[in-house]
Write a structure and sequence with these properties.
mainly alpha, 76% helix, 5 helices, rod-shaped
């Protein structure tokens, strides 16, 4: 799409000054050597010289704005990249910390208590329904039956679910932190 800003961005920075000096030259030439210019061209040359002079300053001002805007954009992008790197490092470090804690918790799970507890099928049904986010209605029909699942497996599953929860919670906090920092950088 064609626009004046796009065109000015293509021109070298010296071009507005060349137009200004050409306008000054035409004005001075018309003023000093007006007798050499036919009468019908004097006014168009003088008006053209003034227009070139004004156009040159206009273009120079627009280019200065473009240069300043580009610098501001580059600064903002650099700041955004720094914030993004900080947040990614935070997430990485926090997830590793959570995994270390999870691994320590998993090591504490023992099968020694498996013989002391029978995990009912109704518990497994409610747990699975909660994990899926749906209601199965199966817990009433299977109440009192043994699931055949060891207590240590239930502990392991619950521990893994909480590990996943903590990982997602850390990612959400990091995303919120990233958004807050982005708003500070670019309101």
């Amino acid at each position: 799409m064609f626009s004046l800003t796009w065109l000015l961005d293509l021109l070298p920075t010296w071009m507005p000054w060349a137009i200004i000096f050409f306008g000054i030259f035409l004005f001075a030439f018309e003023t000093l050597f007006g007798s050499l210019i036919p009468v019908m061209y004097k006014l168009p040359v003088k008006v053209g010289a003034i227009l070139l002079f004004a156009l040159g300053f206009y273009m120079d001002g627009r280019q200065d704005v473009l240069v300043n805007a580009k610098k501001e954009i580059e600064k903002t992008v650099d700041n955004q990249q720094v914030v993004t790197k900080e947040v990614v490092k935070y997430i990485h470090d926090k997830i590793i910390e959570d995994r270390v804690i999870h691994d320590q918790i998993i090591k504490e799970i023992t099968t020694a208590d498996d013989h002391m507890c029978t995990v009912p099928e109704s518990f497994v049904s409610v747990h699975d329904s909660s994990a899926k986010g749906s209601v199965s209605g199966l817990s009433e029909r299977v109440a009192g039956t043994d699931s055949g699942i060891a207590l240590s497996e239930v502990e392991r599953t619950i521990s893994e679910n909480y590990e996943l929860y903590h990982e997602l919670a850390d990612k959400m906090r990091a995303m919120q932190m990233w958004l807050q920092q982005q708003k500070k950088i670019n309101p």
